[in-house]
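seq as requested:
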Amino acid sequence: MTDAFFHIALIEPEIPPNTGNIARLCAATGTHLHLVGPLGFSLDDRYLKRAGLDYWPHVKLHRWDNFAALQAAYPHRRWWLTSKTAQKSFLQASFQPGDFLVFGKETQGLPDELLAQHPEDCLRIPLPCQQAVRSLNLSTAAGIVLYEALRQSAVID
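struct tokens:
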């Protein structure tokens, strides 16, 4: 795959192995990975590198100072914001190639003000046992949503 079917944006990720796992996912699917804002680690972190294994040369990695700069660079794209408080399930979304799948930091998610600006574009992953678990791991959530987007786009069957 030479073209990116989708983009994953991580807003201020904090845990290196999560970002490394998502980078590996992006390498496997031709998805561009956008890291936004201050990171909770260095891109030279050994845990980040270890989680991504030897796939880093295949990751289409982009760094952004803030979310506004990323959005300005891609003004005509659709942005799906993920949140455990969203009303709409990711299974109700109609994904299209070129869409951005946006995930917040592990400890806080996306900022409430950002979610409030785009309520129709916010998605959640339903948790059947929500009383036992508050949220999924960031890399697990990214994989779930990305693979549904790929399925809908007939990239995988």
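The two ends are 16 Å apart (CA to CA).
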